[in-house]
Amino acid sequence: MDLSRLVCLGLSHQTAGVELRESVSGLLEGNARHPAIEEMVVVSTCNRVELYGWLATELEPERGRQLLLTLLAEAHDVAPTALDDHVYFHVGSAVAAHLYRVAAGLESLVLGEPQILGQIHNAFSTAQAAGQCGVVLAEMFRIAIEAGKRVRTETGISANPASISSVAIALAHSVAGSLAQRRVLVVGLGEMGRLTVKTLRGRNVSHIDVANRTVSKAISASAQWGGRAYGLHELEQAVAAADVVFTAATSNAPLLDAALVARAQVQRAERPLVLVDLAVPRNIHPSVEELPGVRLFDVDDLRSTLDEALAARQREVPRVEAMIDAAVARWQRRFRELTVKPVIIDLREKAEAIRQRELARTLRHLGDVEPQVLAHVQHLSRALVNQLLHEPTLRLKQKAVADDVGDFAETFRELFGLDTEEQRAQAEAGKHTEKESSC
After folding, report:
1. pLDDT band, residue 404 (cuts 50/70/90)
2. 48-55/6-12 β-pairing
3. Active site residue 439
4. Over 90: is that where the pLDDT of 420 sits?
5. Distance (Å, whole) CA 380 – CA 342
6. pLDDT at residue 399 above 80?
7. Domain 3-159, CATH among 1.10.10.10, 3.30.70.600, 3.30.460.30, 3.50.50.60
8. Measured in whole angstroms, how far is the alpha carbon of residue 135 from the centre of its chain?
9. CA dihedral for 206, 207, 213, 216, sign (positive or negative)
């Protein structure tokens, strides 16, 4: 098998803006592929869309690039020219290296982001269920998932919160304790507010209320999980019901001042209140921090923690890259073994056919044979075949791992009288011709 048949075309946050990424996100499960693409797995997230393919033998890599680009564009009713300058394309072992970097979190918007590994696993499972993932991509993705798990187990690449929202939640947790049963309020449903809600829900926080300038947007969002919805004019009531408040609204003036929070505190019997201001300009006036029972954090408090977390993750990159190199080397060995797998299968099928033919001939001469004797004869014939084929099979696999096995495999086929790839293709074409003529 020619490794240049392995290709990947994609675009990500590194090559395309959010508007373009949104226009090609959400490929349907089991998305149809072209007959010239024998295997395909699609990885689609909010920050990347990647098509991994194993091309038919007659398709050159550059032609495969154009084909994958067209598939991606047509699936979303986008002109290929609109994507052409924003896609990247890998061939051969570079495909595996890229996939393993993605699985490890090295290519994520936030270094070490852990969700991508689950998304890769889901993409692999979807392709398998649709019958679009054969032995080549299956082996590559299995190694990717194993390597991604090992990276997260043996390094600290994902150990510390490394986004503003995750740092904010970790900070609130350190002061208020577990948020799982706390009532949390998120003010503002822009990008940061939505991300905060998503992170909270991902951590099993069950009581999440939202407040937004457009009340209908708050109602629509909170209906997804059964939370309360407020307008910004109802902030005093919303804060009074909350234990922890995250603010991320766009506003030129503070939305919460000391007077409003003080009135809310009276309604809540002055229980401890944690306020985390994610907005710039700030949504919460600094004087609020002077109120008894209130803890206030702003973006500057979060940034120092975030910088420390990212620095800690960055220090893990060399270890992660060493693991990726080992995973790529393992993939290359497995691919070379896969190249001789058809030869081994053909050899064993021919040997089995000879065994059954000669056994049948012998049994005709022996006449009636007791079942116990027949079982022994069957076992003997199989053992002889397995013993004879063991050494050639082992040597063929070793040769595949050691170097280019192409010429050796063809010699092996000739030596044992096996059909060549060309003869098998001709035989397959003949079958199709017979079917067409019989229609």
Report:
1. low
2. antiparallel
3. no
4. no
5. 26
6. no
7. 3.30.460.30
8. 18
9. positive
Q: What is d(CA 127, CA 138) in angstroms, rounded to the nearest whole number?
A: 9
Reply yes or no: is the peptide bond before residue 281 cis, omega within 30 of 0: yes
In whole angstroms, give the CA distance from residue 104 to residue 108. Answer: 9
CA–CA separation, 277 vs 368, rounded Å? 90
Catalytic residue chosen out of the listed positions 8, 46, 133, 439: 46
CA dihedral 228, 231, 236, 242 (to 10 degrees): 30
DSSP 251-269: -SS-SB-HHHHHHHHHHTT
Averaged confidence pLDDT in the chain? 88
Give the confidence band of 62 by pLDDT, cuts at 50, 70, 90. Answer: very high
Q: How far is CA 180 from CA 161, 169, 204, 206, 224, in A?
A: 17, 11, 6, 6, 17
- In this structure, CATH architecture of domain 164-302: 3-Layer(aba) Sandwich (3.40)
Cβ atoms of 116 and 47 closer than 8 Å: no
Distance from chain centroid for Cα 310: 22
Q: Where in the chain is the domain with CATH 3.30.460.30?
A: 3-159
Residue 54: closest CA among 36, 77, 81, 28: 36
Assess contact for 277 and 283: CB atoms under 8 A. yes
User: How far is 24 from 11, CA to CA, in rounded Å?
Assistant: 9
Distance CA 354, CA 232 (A): 82
